[in-house]
């Protein structure tokens, strides 16, 4: 019934606009034109499934695994397949080298995580022993070419062997350790069910918003870009990558070739495209926000900033503003409001692919959110 009603309403709206010549479904300014954004058609998004007891139990089992412990074996020698906890210091020509040392490192013997011979050298040693192992980095050592082919000495201490993993019992005491809300197992299961349900709903909303947003972006046309906006974003992106190259101690050209397999010319082209797309999204969001009066007040902005700070794990809004400008945060809020508006007003249409796999004969059915 809802599907038929949605089609009827959409059709009536379209006919009304054609007859009146109304352009209320277009948003335009000096920079961008956005046509047909209200009631835009998108592939239907599957409604979130009901959360089952199995879903809840599987989630809780994963939490128990996070709090799993293992006994520490200290009365025998290491054998292949053991997971051992070790300290080690690597030296070349008597000098420790960067990232060649660690404490409390868990290593499975036979995993091949270290250079040849390192793991085998630990076999037979008992917890509490410290010994030196002399080895050599492979000639083609790609993790750090500066170490390739060099002789190395590792001083290794075996702390203990990890024994059988033990899961904590699911009882009220465990619940109070892992939850700030629940006191009993029964309450905890209700909490998790609510949490999973909200997460599933959020995923659905996000997917629908993205579908509508991308469909609108595909139709939008940029007439021109504001002076300097694209260049500013290009410079920001390039600065981030340059900082990354500096942190690796590499020339920028070498950094791009080694980690991204691209030339500087290709990089610059991709950066320009990304910058243009970023500016386009901001322009489209602002045009629709202006047309639909979605631009938030200062009070609304501050409320949304608090949500963003919480969402991204910042202590407060001031901490968030240390890494993002006021304009950037405002644009995020406006874009989110526009996405919600578009999702609320889009028409979901069953795609051909979904229709082919469905037993329903109505391949063109549609529904609103």
UniProtKB/TrEMBL annotation:
**Which PROSITE patterns does this UniProt record tie to the protein?**
FKBP_PPIASE, PROKAR_LIPOPROTEIN
Q: Kindly list the GO molecular function terms attached to this UniProt entry.
A: peptidyl-prolyl cis-trans isomerase activity
InterPro entries assigned to the protein according to its UniProt record, in alphabetical order: PPIase_dom_sf (IPR046357), PPIase_FKBP_dom (IPR001179), Trig_fac (IPR005215), Trigger_fac_C (IPR008880), Trigger_fac_C_sf (IPR037041), Trigger_fact/SurA_dom_sf (IPR027304)
Where in or outside the cell it occurs: the entry states: Cytoplasm
> Where are the compositionally biased (Low complexity) regions?
357-369
The region called Disordered is annotated at: 350-369
Its predominant location is cytoplasm
Q: What is this protein called?
A: peptidylprolyl isomerase
Species, as recorded: Dorea ammoniilytica
């Amino acid at each position: 019934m809802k599907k038929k009603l949605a089609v009827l309403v959409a059709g009536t709206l379209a006919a009304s606009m054609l007859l009146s010549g109304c352009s209320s479904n277009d948003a335009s300014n000096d920079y961008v034109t956005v046509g047909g954004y209200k009631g835009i058609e998108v592939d239907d998004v599957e409604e979130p499934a009901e959360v089952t007891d199995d879903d809840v139990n599987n989630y809780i089992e994963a939490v128990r695994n996070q709090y799993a412990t293992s006994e520490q074996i200290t009365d025998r020698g290491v054998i292949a397949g053991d997971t051992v906890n070790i300290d080690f210091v690597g030296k070349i020509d008597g000098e420790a080298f960067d990232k060649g040392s660690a404490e409390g490192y868990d290593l499975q013997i036979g995993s091949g995580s270290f250079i040849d011979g390192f793991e085998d050298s630990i076999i037979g040693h008992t917890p509490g022993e410290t010994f030196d192992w002399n080895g050599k980095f492979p000639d083609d050592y790609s993790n750090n070419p500066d170490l390739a082919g060099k002789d190395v000495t590792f001083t290794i201490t075996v702390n203990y062997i990890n024994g059988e993993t033990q899961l904590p019992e699911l009882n009220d005491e465990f619940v109070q350790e892992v939850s700030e809300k629940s006191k009993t197992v029964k309450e905890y299961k209700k909490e998790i069910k609510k949490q999973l349900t909200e997460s599933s709903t959020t995923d659905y909303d996000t997917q629908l918003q993205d579908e509508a947003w991308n469909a609108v972006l595909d139709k939008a046309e940029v007439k021109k870009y504001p002076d300097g906006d694209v260049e500013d974003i290009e410079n920001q992106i390039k600065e981030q990558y340059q900082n990354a190259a500096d942190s690796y101690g590499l020339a920028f050209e070498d950094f791009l070739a080694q980690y991204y397999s691209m030339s500087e010319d290709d990089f610059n082209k991709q950066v320009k495209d990304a910058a243009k797309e970023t500016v386009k999204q901001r322009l489209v969001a602002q045009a629709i926000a202006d047309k639909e009066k979605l631009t938030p007040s200062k009070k609304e902005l501050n409320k949304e900033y608090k949500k963003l700070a919480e969402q991204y794990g910042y202590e407060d809004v001031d901490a968030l503003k240390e890494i993002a400008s006021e304009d950037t945060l405002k644009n995020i809020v406006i874009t989110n409001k526009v996405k919600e508006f578009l999702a609320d007003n889009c028409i979901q249409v069953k795609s051909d692919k979904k229709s082919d796999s469905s037993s329903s004969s109505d391949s063109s059915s549609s529904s609103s959110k």
